[in-house]
Structure formats: C-alpha cells, structure tokens
C-alpha cells in the first residue's frame, strides 16, 4: 500500500453554520473518522495567515512568527510547512499546493506559506481582497479552477501529499455577513470537496493506496461578518478527518497544529521534536 494525504483548507467557515448546512461530503469524512469543533489557540489571532501558518508548520504564532496577513518576518525557514518536510525526508516524492489566496502559494505579502510555492489561478493580483459582486464572482471562479487543477493532479499524479484551499466562504462573510449566500458558499465548497474525493476514488491504482483526508477551516465570523476578535463565533473552527487509524475518538482535543504532525505521521515521516501539534488520537481529554 502506498500512503497519501489530502488536506483541504476552506477559509472562514463558522462551525455552527457548517453543521446546519447541507454538506454531505464533509459529513461523510466525519462519519468515517471524526468531525470536531476546534478552538483557535490563544497564541494565534483569529486571522487567516497565522492559523494557516500553524496548519502548515505544526507550531503557533509565537514560533512561526506570522502575526497577521502580512507574512514578512516569518520564521517558516525554522518551522517549514509539512509539504517541504515531506520532500526533505524523501526527495524522490512529489507534493502539490494550490490556492486562490496568493500568500499561501506565492510571494505576495511576504509569502509563501507553502514553499517554494504552488498553483494559483491566473487572475488579477489582489482580486481576492475585493468584496463587491464582481470580486466574489471572480473568487468563485478561482476556487473552481483550484478544484479542477487539484482533481487533475489527484487523477494523474502520485503526489504523497496535497494542500488545496478554497476562499469564497470567507469573502462572502466579509462582504455581507452570515447570510444565505454565505451558507450557499459553504455548500459549494462541500461540493468541491466531493469532486476531490471522487478524483481519489477514480485513481487507477486506488485499491493499493491508503488515503488520509483532512478538511479544516481557520476561524469563524461574527454575525455581521469579519473576524480577528476573541468571540466564540470567531474562535470556533473545525476539523474533519478520515483515514488509516482515524476514528471518532481521534478528534479528542484536536488542534490546528495537529494537522502537520498527523500528515507527517501518516506518511511515515519522522516528526521533529518540539512541535506544538500531536498525532490525531494522542491527546488526553481536556
């Protein structure tokens, strides 16, 4: 059996709205493993880049040095993203990253989080910062392009690990708050997760592969939209995961930092000492 990991980041999805929405693909992942609410660690603000930095590196802001959405001055060279660690462990393997938000996979704002970068749709720089209808339409297209490209990579390549990211729910909430269109954006993201799961199932050698799938958000939103504060609505995130060795109990006490650590563990990569995260299922109840 060859082992593979897919991590899907969906930005800014409130946990309570997700559970009330029609999200059969995320629910299926949870049914096969776990789906747990996660509190954004107090060392991190409820801002995207610090939390995605933690997802990628397995350590919190006080160590990776990403304080806000300007990544300049980060310390990711000391605490590399999990894709970089996987390639360093075995230079023969390949990985893939894709995102509409430029700092995750490009050099905008001091990025990338995932070095040396990855795929981003070829649309005007900065479009992901807009919140008018034209910008939201463009972001929706970008997410579709990211999903399509990631699905093609899943079908055609044997990457050990993939990180892919969807932006639209966060930007809808910034534009208008927690509305019906926000719920629709979340449900659209779930459909895109379904596309990726179908691509895995259609792989020609799927019967001889073990796949760990993790879907995660970085933070929530206030009712009126926006985040960055300490309210429960902003600090409550969530993780859904399935794969070898993952069951309902594996979600006990899970944190954003655990994703990098579990990804390395799932691929047989030695986990460096001193990371903040732990392998799923190894945390004691709070």
Please tag this protein with its features.
38% helix; 11 helices; 6 strands; 14% strand; 6-stranded mixed beta sheet; globular; alpha/beta
**Secondary-structure element series:** EHHEHHHEHHEHHEHEH
Reported by name, the CATH topology is Alkaline Phosphatase, subunit A
In the sheet with the most strands, the strands line up as: 2-6-5-1-4-3
CATH architecture title: 3-Layer(aba) Sandwich
- Class per helix and strand makeup: alpha/beta
Strand content: 5-15%
Main β sheet profile? 6 strands, mixed
CATH-defined superfamily = Alkaline Phosphatase, subunit A
* Rounded average pLDDT: 95
Query: What's the number of extended β-strand segments?
Result: 6
User: How many individual helices?
Assistant: 11
Name of the top-level CATH class: Alpha Beta
Instruction: Using the CA coordinates, give the radius of gyration.
Output: 17 Å
Overall outline:
globular
Q: Number of domains in the coordinates? A: 1
Instruction: Tell me the distance between the termini.
Output: 35 Å
């Amino acid at each position: 059996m060859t082992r593979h990991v897919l991590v899907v980041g969906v930005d800014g999805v409130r946990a309570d709205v997700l559970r009330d929405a029609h999200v059969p693909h995320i629910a299926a992942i949870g049914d096969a493993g776990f789906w747990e609410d996660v509190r954004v660690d107090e060392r991190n603000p409820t801002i995207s880049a610090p939390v995605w930095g933690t997802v990628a590196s397995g350590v919190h802001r006080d160590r990776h040095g990403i304080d806000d959405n300007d990544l300049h001055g980060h310390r990711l060279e000391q605490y590399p993203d999990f894709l970089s660690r996987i390639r360093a462990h075995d230079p023969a393997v390949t990985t893939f990253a894709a995102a509409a938000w430029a700092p995750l996979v490009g050099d905008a704002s001091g990025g990338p989080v995932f070095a040396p970068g990855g795929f981003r749709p070829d649309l005007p720089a900065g479009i992901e910062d807009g919140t008018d209808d034209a910008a939201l339409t463009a972001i929706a297209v970008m997410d579709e392009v990211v999903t399509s490209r990631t699905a093609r990579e899943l079908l055609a390549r044997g990457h050990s690990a993939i990180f892919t990211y969807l932006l639209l729910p966060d930007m809808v909430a910034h534009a208008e708050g927690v509305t019906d269109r926000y719920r629709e954006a979340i449900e659209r993201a779930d459909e895109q997760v379904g596309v990726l799961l179908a691509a895995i199932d259609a792989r020609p050698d799927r019967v001889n592969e073990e796949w760990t799938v993790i879907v995660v958000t970085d933070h929530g939103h206030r009712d009126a939209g926006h985040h960055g504060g300490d309210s429960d609505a902003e600090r409550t995130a969530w993780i859904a995961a399935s794969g070898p060795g993952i069951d309902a109990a594996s979600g006990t006490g899970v944190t954003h930092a655990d994703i990098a650590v579990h990804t390395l563990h799932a691929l047989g990569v030695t986990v460096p000492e001193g990371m903040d995260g732990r392998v799923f299922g190894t945390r004691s109840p709070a």
